[in-house]
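Why should sequence recovery work at all? Because a backbone constrains its sequence more than one might expect. Tight turns favour small or flexible residues, buried strands favour hydrophobic ones, and helices have their own preferences. The token representation captures these environments compactly. In the example below, the structure is given first.
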């Protein structure tokens, strides 16, 4: 297969909050955020994506210690949770300290919201400027902190399965025009249910993993037979993905009012797409080879608790969705996103699009016998 030339996957974790100047956004705390803590004893640059209010989780290793381990980002450092696991001694975590010795986040995510909340509160306290436990223990600090520049990031969790939702009306319309023409751009069911399909979990990779240009059948000319070759219309899709924590019993639905208890956090996702292959193969069962080349996610999982200061009222939906999809509580977020491309011969990346996250996709999933583990 041919490599994809001149394209690098570039990302920042999130641009969140309010506008302070053209192109500048800040992560600002909301009511109750950080439990009263606002400053860390770890130096955090004003433009950092990792202030005390964020604290995303990830999996990392170093050259000196190649073992995969859990970490939390603060400034330009990673706090190694395996080193401080003995400090997680609250009621939800005291008997589960072993989860911080695991090579993925799965065990920790599976403990549920009480454990997540307790861990976040402890981490914010330990990293705050006024807390001496880490700040004044030179030996513990030496072992517990790793410069991000010295770390290699890995997939944050073992991904057994994933569903890709078609949840942007603009995107669905644009792709529909590309494949079916303007008159049939948006399929009738799109207005009533969250359209989704199961993706290939084995090809989900962490940011920085090279993506190879796929090959497959294409039909560039309707009057000629299909041809086989390398994709000529490789595309990107800027998406948000969420990780599910506690599962549900097989066949047991999750009501929309309880969905927040299952969602641990979010990552950026690039759903690489071979449009010329997709156009020919997607009827009648959807994409296959055109979506199997790779799905890139960011290494840091931003928790839903960190995002709550940016919650927005749910958008008005027209037509009104069926009752099982209606949520009275606000659960969409002001998350500003952008995509930048740096090609061969370019000194700096060029921003090609900006967007903002809004939407609801999780609730439709577990209505039948779908099992979340």
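From this structural description, the recovered sequence reads:
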């Amino acid at each position: 297969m041919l490599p994809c030339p001149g394209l690098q996957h570039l990302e920042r974790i999130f641009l969140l909050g309010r506008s302070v100047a053209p192109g500048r956004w800040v992560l600002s705390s909301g009511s109750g955020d950080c439990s009263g803590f606002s400053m860390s004893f770890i130096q955090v640059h004003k433009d950092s994506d990792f202030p005390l209010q964020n604290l995303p989780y990830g999996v990392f290793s170093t050259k000196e210690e190649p073992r995969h381990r859990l970490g939390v980002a603060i400034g330009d450092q990673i706090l190694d949770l395996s080193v401080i696991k003995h400090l997680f001694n609250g009621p939800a975590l005291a008997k589960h300290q072993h989860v911080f010795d695991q090579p993925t986040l799965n065990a920790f995510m599976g403990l549920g919201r009480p454990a997540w909340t307790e861990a976040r509160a402890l981490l914010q306290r330990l990293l705050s400027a006024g807390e001496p436990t880490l700040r004044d223990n030179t030996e513990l600090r030496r072992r517990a902190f790793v410069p991000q520049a010295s770390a290699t990031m890995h997939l944050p969790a073992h991904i057994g399965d994933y569903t890709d939702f078609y949840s942007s009306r603009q995107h669905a319309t644009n792709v529909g025009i590309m494949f079916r023409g303007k008159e049939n751009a948006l399929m009738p069911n799109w207005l009533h249910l969250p359209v989704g399909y199961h993706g290939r979990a084995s090809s989900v990779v962490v940011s920085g993993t090279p993506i190879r240009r796929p090959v497959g059948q294409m039909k560039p000319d309707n009057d000629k037979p299909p041809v086989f070759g390398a994709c000529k219309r490789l595309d990107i899709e800027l998406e948000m993905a969420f990780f599910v924590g506690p599962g549900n019993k097989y066949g047991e639905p999750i009501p929309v009012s309880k969905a927040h208890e299952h969602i641990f956090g979010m990552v950026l996702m690039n759903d690489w797409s071979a449009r010329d292959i997709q156009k020919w193969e997607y009827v009648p069962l959807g994409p296959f080879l055109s979506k199997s080349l790779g799905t890139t996610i960011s290494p840091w999982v931003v928790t839903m608790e960190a995002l709550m200061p940016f919650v927005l009222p749910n958008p008005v939906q027209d037509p009104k969705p069926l009752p099982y999809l209606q949520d009275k509580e606000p659960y969409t977020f002001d998350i500003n996103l952008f995509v930048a491309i740096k090609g061969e011969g370019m000194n700096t990346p060029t921003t090609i699009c900006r967007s903002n996250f809004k939407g609801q996709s999780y609730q439709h999933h577990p209505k039948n016998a779908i099992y979340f583990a």
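A few observations help interpret the result. Residues 1-32, 359-373 have pLDDT under 50 and may be disordered.
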